[in-house]
Design brief:
mainly alpha; 13 helices; 71% helix
Length: 302
């Protein structure tokens, strides 16, 4: 990793967050308008910083920063092109899952720190959700890594030069998508915020610059999980004619658009049903996915 890599990652994070904001407008049926996004950011930054009447200062003010750090750390593990790999470690996919794990304390800190009943409920909801979905996410990474015999994201991309993993392990992709949607706080898994139930839940009390940081971090999270989905399941930068980085960007934005589109068209699941889905379907399914991945590796990748 060169000295310029952190700046490049921050540039990708900011540019990607802007692209995700435009996709949100398009999915909502609006004409994408960068000027409207800029005006919204400026309006939030000019808002006065109002604080809850009873709150924990350390938790309340630390939560947006922890959420942003977790999102950027996850994004840094995504391999964008052969010449730009961010943090390229032999255990990069594990680092990705570890970075996403810090989203849970960030959301809980935001809810508990606000000291408001609905915010606390949102924080506890997210903790319950992640207890169920964190394990399938990690186990699916193991299943996808089996054919490459490596946990390095670039090695997993390399093994998909002929056939994307989405065709080899469609069952793993079916388990992966709900898990990353849940950790990215996307509908219909957004029980921690639930605007029509909790009025914003864990992040309802944030205003001004802190609200802007939360909004930015959530969009970077969507970018990170979409980029890793493209790398692990869609062949990453592999593709004809176009440059490697362009293929990766196209696939990442396509995944993000799909996640946002699905989220707006499905009703929000009740928390107890989500937990049933996680513990009785996703976790046993992920164990089965590891077994099937091992068989596939022995039969076709040896």
């Amino acid at each position: 990793m060169s000295a310029a890599t952190p700046f490049a990652i921050l540039l990708v994070a900011l540019a990607g967050a802007g692209a995700i904001a435009l996709l949100e407008q398009a999915v909502a049926g609006l004409r994408p308008a960068p000027a409207a996004i800029g005006a919204s950011i400026a309006r939030r930054l000019r808002e006065p910083l109002t604080l809850p009447s009873s709150y924990d200062a350390w938790l309340y003010h630390g939560a947006p920063l922890l959420l942003a750090l977790a999102a950027v750390a996850a994004l840094a593990t995504v391999p964008w092109a052969p010449g730009f790999r961010g943090i390229d470690l032999a255990s990069g996919t594990i680092l990705f899952a570890a970075a996403l794990a810090y989203v849970t304390p960030a959301v809980f800190m935001a809810g508990w720190g606000a000291g408001r009943p609905l915010a606390v409920v949102g924080g506890f909801r997210f903790v319950a959700l992640m207890l169920g979905f964190a394990m399938p996410l990690a186990m699916v990474i193991t299943a996808v890594a089996a054919p490459a015999e490596s946990l390095r994201p670039t090695d997993i991309v390399a093994v998909q030069s002929s056939v994307p993993m989405a065709l080899v392990q469609p069952y793993s992709l079916a388990l992966w998508l709900p898990a990353v949607m849940a950790v990215a706080l996307l509908p219909p898994f957004d029980t921690a915020t639930a605007p029509d139930e909790l009025g914003g839940g864990a992040f309802a009390r944030y205003t001004g610059p802190e609200a802007a940081i939360v909004a930015l971090a959530r969009r970077i999270l969507v970018l990170a999980v979409s980029g890793m989905t493209a790398a692990l399941f869609l062949g990453g930068w592999h593709g004809p004619l176009l440059p490697d980085a362009v293929w990766m960007a196209v696939k990442t934005l396509a995944v993000a658009a799909g996640l946002l589109w699905v989220g707006r068209r499905l009703p929000r699941f009740e928390t107890d049903r989500l937990l049933i889905l996680a513990w009785k379907v996703a976790i046993p399914g992920a164990i089965a996915a590891i077994v099937l991945a091992a068989l596939t590796t022995l039969l076709f990748y040896r």
